[in-house]
Structure formats: structure tokens, C-alpha cells
Amino acid sequence: MDTTVENKTALKGAEFLVKESAPEDVFTPEDFSEEQLMIKDMADQFISKEITPIVDRIDKLEEGLMPSLLEKAGEQGLLGASFPEEYGGLGKDFVTATIINEGLGAGHSFSVAMAAHTGIGSLPILYFGTKEQKDKYIPKLATGEMKGAYALTEPDSGSDALGAKTTAKLTEDGKFYILNGQKSWITNSGFADVFTVFAKIDGDKFTAFIVDKGTPGFTLGAEEHKMGIKGSSTRQIYFQDAKVPAENVLGEIGKGHLIAFNILNIGRLKLCAAALGAAKKCINTSVQYANTRIQFKQPIANFGAIKHKLAEMAIRTWTSEAALFRTAQLIDDKEKELFAAGKPFNEALLGAAEEYAVECAILKVNGSEVLDYVVDEGVQIHGGNGFSDEYIISKAYRDSRINRIFEGTNEINRLLTLDMTLKRAMKGKIDLMNPAMNVLKELMDIPDFGSDDETPFAKEKKLLANFKKAILMTAGAAAQKLMAKLENEQEILMDIADMAIETFVAESALLRLIKLTDSKGEDAAALQADMVRTYLYDAADKINKSGKDAINAFAEGDEQRMMLLGLKRFTKAEPFNTKEARRRIADKLISDNKYPW
User: Which parts of the sequence belong to the Acyl-CoA dehydrogenase-like C-terminal domain (predicted)?
Assistant: First the structure.
């Protein structure tokens, strides 16, 4: 494992709200190494050659097909890329693993099976297993010889994971745990060889177990009939006095929540990566259809309404990509820092992912909702044909919907975004109080109506700084006014989370643009500037709306009027012709007949 950490100033988790990042300190897709570009191409080629031609066969759950595809991916090193070399992996860094997840994200049901196997199906054992457990399972999971699954959800406990009712009781001789209970929505369950299962010992000690396929008392239900991702195996699993060897306890007894929640941080980022890969493919499909579909004696790509859709699909995808790889590198750098400080590799990565848990939650929401937008507009561009199963865009539309539920619903992740940020502040990890107080003082001052700053992107930087002030003002006042009651005001929490999500994505995109402009020149980055300026212009209105809804829910009288005036000041964007910007972006997509960035 490469432990080199470049000399740069990295923000702590959630610190983007109160501090600026320098463009040169931020990693962007333009920084991919030659090796990373080759690996990305290998993943793209795997999807186009091995998956896309047989998606219909995959959706029919053809016996043995999905396992064989996972094995093929394993032979190419795509499954074990981020696993340590000592366990048969390639030992690649976190950014490279994220690149693979993006590349394989365009594979519909295969992407789901692959992500479940390499993520939640394998990582609990890799990060929390004993040496004996890792030696037994990880080399085979890395190659695809064994397939993994993860059994946390139950019929009555989804978002409330700790409400699980599956029980585990130690036998009198201390050699086995007897499991009883039921798990639902278990991806890969139809063919998995090894399951990470969560159960409560003595009714309260939430604990993880490694359960092998074929364990006596362990049975599978029938395949679920799902709206989308039909080719992924999803079944309920049952434990009726299932005998699991005591040495198969994973991690510490009573500490299963550490496994469940820490693995989810990584899973959320990887879901965003997969959604990004799927979004790019759907844009390609939509552009190519728009270029060939003739109406009124010309391709529909010529029409402004279609250009608006294509451009917006590209804008949301490009900006989401900026946020994704910015965060992936932050995690990678923190992992190397912790590793260099003597932490074992598993604690280093988990610690790094926990540090940026807020950003991972943001990415999960943003990535899944960007893909939902892209596939929805893709169907619309296809018109009536988009509603036909003969066109792959209809499959993409159905397959996308699960992403807003996977890895914690988007509502849960919105709530977590603010909850984890406030907890980091209360623990002294970031200073939110002083910046929030400064913003409230600023509201009393005479507004700065203009600036003589003519440096590149000065107006965009100021607008972004004002977005952060809007968040600090709203969140600070809500916390001060509602105090402990705030946690029950989910609507307010989600409004403020939406403000934070828009701001993090906008800042990531602006930093990517500035870095690109500095290296390639203004002309080379002109279309990317159109994308970022359009995103910022629209984000101002979205942040204003979310802020108003939040403020109106807890403030009244003079306080309300003052804050609404402040919000208006902080979300005031310069006039910008987004129509022409979108047309320029769309014309590039149309001329290239694909997503070109």
C-alpha cells in the first residue's frame, strides 16, 4: 500500500461549511494517472463486452449466469482491486477503487451484484475479521471464487437497523451460537457462499456473524419480484436453530453497530460512483437517440427543449463527479495519514471514511438523485419509445429507483448530514459556533452591494461563500431557538441538509473548474465554466427556497424578517443567460454524440 501523503491542507469532515479549499489541494478526474485511466477503460470495456449484450438474460435470473460474470470480473482483478495483495488483491488506493465502481456502474443488475459483493459482502470480514477469518475467506472473495452477501435488514427493521429481532444464543458447551430470525431484501442471497449476518446475543448485544451457505437451519426464500434490478438475486433468508460456530463471531460481541454503520459510509460513496457511471451511459443513450429521432423533418436534438434536458443532465453529472472524487481523495489522504501513524490498514480506511461520513451521506443523496433525474429525462427524450421495454432507457429508469433507498434512504441520509455535523461541532472537531455568530453580526451591518474584485471567478467565489453564510445563519438560529427539540423537526433538518448538499456540490464543481482553467486555460474550460455558472445560478434559488421553508418553520416577527432579508442577500446571484449556456453545452454533446467529459 502506498502511504505517501502530499503536502497539502485537507479539510476535516464537514469543515467545508466554515473553511475554503484551495483548488490545487483538491483532486479532480482530470488528475487521473495513466494507470487509473487504463483501469477505468478496462471496467468500461467489461461492461460493454460482457454485460450490455446480455442484459436481458441477466434480468431473467438465468441459473449460474451472475456468479459466472462475477468470476470473470474477478479474473480481471476488478473485484479485488482494493484488497491487500497478501489476500490476493491488487492493493490499489481508494480513488482507484472508486474509479472501478464508476466504470462498472453502467451494468444495471450486474453493478448491484458486484457492489454488494465487493462492498458490504466482503469488507466486514476484511476490516473486522480475525487473521484466521481473513485467511479463510478474503482470497476467495477477492477472485470471485466465493461470493459475499450482507444480512442486516429485517421485515420490521430497515432504517432502524438496531431494532433487529434475530437472536443468537450460545450453546452450553460454548462451541456454537444458535440463530433464530429472518432477514429481508438480501442482495446476492440466491448464490452467495458467505453472509455477514447481524443478530442480538442475549436480547441486547447487537453482533455480527459470518454464516456459510449450507449451515444447518439456514434457508432461503423465493426470489423477490422487483420493480427494477431484476437480474440481481434478492431473497429473504431464515434462521431456525441455525448452528454457527462460535469462532464465526465477527468483531466484538455487542459491537455489531460499528461494523454496520462504518461499512455504510464507504457504501454510500461507492453508490454515488456507480450512479455516476450509469448516468454517463444514459446520457450517451439519450444523445444518440436525439440525434437519430426525426420529427418535423429534423433530429429532435435540434430543438431547444431537448437541448435544455441534455445540458442539464450533463451539468448535474459533471458537478456530482467533482464532489465524488474530491471526497474520495480526502478519504484516501486521511487513510494514508492514519496508516503512516501506525494504524492497521483496516482501521485506517474505516477511520478515514468515518471522518468524512457527512460528505459520504451528501454524495449518496446527490448521486442517486442525479441519476434519477438523468433517467427520467432520458425516458422523456425517447417519448413513447422510452416507455417500451425494447429500449434500454426504460430498464435504466426502473433500475435507478432503488438507489434512493439503498445504503440508508435519502431521507435518513439528509437527517444524518446535519445530525453528524452538529455532533462534530459539539465534540470540538469543527468550529461552527464562531462562524455562525459572525454571520448573525453581519446581518446587522450595511450590506456590501458590490465588489471591485476583478480576479477570475471572484463573483462565483463570493456567491459560494454567501451560500455557506446562509446555512450557518439558518442552522445556527434553528439550533439556538429549538435546542433539543430540533432533532424532532425533520422537515427543518432536511431543508438545511438540502442547502448543504447544494453548497458542497457547487463548491466541488467550482474548485474543479478553477483548477482546470489554471492548467488548460480559459478557452479549454469554457463549457465547464458554463456548467458551473449555470449550476451556481440555479443553486442560489434552491438554497433560498430551502432556507425560507426552514426559517418560516421556526422564526417569527422581527427575527423572521431579519433572517429572510439576510437569506435574500446571501442567495442573490448575478444575472446569467442560462439558456445560451445550456445550448453551448448541449451542442457539444450533440456533436460528439456522447458525454465528452
Answer: 466-569
Residue 174 exposed, middle or buried by CB count within 10 Å (0-12, 13-18, 19+) = exposed
E strands of 248-363, at which residues?
Answer: 249-250, 294-295, 298-299
What DSSP designation does 206 have?
E
Same CATH topology for 259-412 and 430-592: the answer is: yes
pLDDT at 186: 96
pLDDT digits (tens, 9 = 90+) for 315-333: 999 999 999 999 999 999 9
Cβ distance 220 to 235 under 8 Å?
A: yes
CATH for the 15-147 domain, from 3.90.930.12, 1.10.540.10, 3.30.1360.20, 3.40.50.970: 1.10.540.10
Cβ neighbours of 75 (radius 10 Å) = 11
**Which CATH number applies to 430-592?**
1.20.140.10
Q: What is the pLDDT of residues 255-301, one digit of tens each?
A: 999 888 888 899 999 999 999 999 999 999 999 999 999 999 999 99
Of 102, 321, 377, 407, which is the active-site residue?
Answer: 407
Q: Which residues pair with 229 in a beta bridge?
A: none
* Residue range 140-181, pLDDT digits in tens: 999 999 999 999 999 987 767 678 899 999 999 999 999 999
3-state secondary structure of 203: coil
Instruction: Name residue 150's beta-bridge partners.
Output: 196
The partner residues of 218 in beta bridges, in order of sequence, read 239
Question: Domain spans of the chain?
Answer: 15-147, 150-250, 259-412, 430-592
What local confidence, expressed as pLDDT, does residue 3 receive?
47
Q: Give residue-wise pLDDT tens across range 486-530.
A: 999 999 999 999 999 999 999 999 999 999 999 999 999 999 999
Per the CB < 8 A criterion, the answer to whether 493 and 414 are in contact is: yes
Which of these CATH numbers, 1.10.357.20, 1.20.140.10, 3.90.226.10, 3.40.140.10, describes 259-412? 1.20.140.10
Do the beta carbons of residue 458 and residue 451 sit within 8 Å?
Answer: yes
Is 390 a residue of the active site?
no
Share the mean pLDDT of the chain.
94
Q: Are 176 and 243 in contact (CB under 8 A)?
A: yes
What architecture does CATH give domain 150-250? Beta Barrel (2.40)
Report how far residue 572's alpha carbon sits from residue 462's, in angstroms, rounded to the nearest whole number.
Answer: 10
Q: Is the per-residue pLDDT at 449 higher than 70? A: no
What is the DSSP annotation of 518-567? HHH-TTTTHHHHHHHHHHHHHHHHHHHHHHHHHHHHH--HHHHHHHHHHH
pTM of full prediction above 0.90: yes
Which of 185, 183, 168, 245 lies closest to 210 in space, CA to CA?
Answer: 245
By DSSP bridging, strand 298-299 and strand 294-295 are antiparallel
CA of 378: how far to CAs of 53, 78, 531, in Å?
A: 20, 29, 19
